[in-house]
Amino acid sequence: MAISIPVEHVLYLAALLFLLGLVGVLVRRNVIFLLMSLEVMMNAAGLAFVAAGAKWGQPDGQIMFMFILALAAAEVAVALGLVLQLSRRFETLDVDAADELSG
Amino acid sequence: MEHLWLVPALPLLGFLVLFLTEGRLPDRVVAVVGAGSVGLAALVALFVGYQFTQSGVASHPQVLWTWMAVGSFAPTVTLHLDSLSLVMMGVVTGVGFLIHLYATGYMWKDHEEPRGYSRFFAYMNLFVFAMLMLVLGDNLLVLFLGWEGVGLCSYLLIGFYHRDGANGYAARKAFVVTRVGDTALALGLFLLFWEVGTLHIQDALDQAAALDKTTVTVICLLLLGGAVGKSAQVPLQTWLPDAMAGPTPVSALIHAATMVTAGVYLIARMQGLYLESADARHVVALVGLVTLLVSSFTALAQTDIKRILAYSTMSQIGYMFMALGVGAWSAAIFHLMTHAFFKALLFLAAGSVILAMHHEQDIFKMGGLRKKLPVPFWSMAIGSLGLMAFPFTSGFFSKDAILLTAWTEAGWLYWGGGVLAAGLTALYTVRMMVITFWGETKTEPHDASHGGFSRTNMWLPLVALCALSIGGGWFGIGVLDDTLGALIEVDSHFSPVALATMAMPILMIGLGWLIFTGRINVQGLVDSAVGRGLRRFFAGGWGFDWVYDRVFVGPFVWFAKANKGDFVDWTYRLTAGVVRATHYVAALTQSGRLRWYAANMAAGLVVLLLFVAGWL
Amino acid sequence: MILLAILLLLAAGVVAWASERFIGANAPRWVSLTAFAAGLAWAAFECWSGAADGLYAAQSFEWIPRFGINVILELDGLSLLLVALTMFLGIVAVVSSWDEMETGHGFFQFNILWVMAGVVGVFTAMDLFLFFFFWEVMLIPMYFLIAIWGHENKGYASMKFFLFTQISGLLMLLAILALVFFTQAATGEVTFGYAALKNAGASLPADVRTWLMLGFFVAFATKLPSVPFHTWLPDAHTQAPTAGSVILAGILLKTGAYGIIRFAVPLFPEASLDFAWWGMLLGAASILYGGVMAFSQSDFKRLVAYSSIAHMGFVLLGVYAFNEQGMQGAVMTMIAHGFSTAALFMMAGALQQRLHTREMSRMGGLWKHAPRMGVMTMFFVVASVGTPGLGNFVGEFLALLGAFKQNVWLAVAATVGIVVAAVYGLHLLQRSFQGEPNPQIEAMDDFGFREMSVMALMMLGLVWLGVYPQPVLEMSAATIAGLGVLP
Question: Which of C193, C179, C336 is closest to C253 using CA atoms?
Answer without folding.
Answer: C336
